[in-house]
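Worked example 2:
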Amino acid sequence: MSWLLADGDGVVLRLHIQPGAKKTEVAGLHGEALKIRLAAPPVDGKANACLIEFLARRLGVAKSAVELISGDSSRAKRVRVGGVAADTAAAKLS
């Protein structure tokens, strides 16, 4: 999968974010990235906080294990999630 890369004891996810959606959910692929709709607005870091909370809950890890690598103020983001195997992450996010 082009949107998921194994990285040591975790994974790096390539994401396309759509803030301000009706509900937070995985919405399939967007080119080479996994598209995630967020119910939070893109204001004051609310969308990034919502994304981190959503990924932590969906992947069964602590919020501290989810780190935004790049794309702080962009729709295109790269996120590292520690403590989860690539096959597990793919299954839980597909």
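The first strand starts at residue 4 and ends at 7. The chain has a mean pLDDT of 97.
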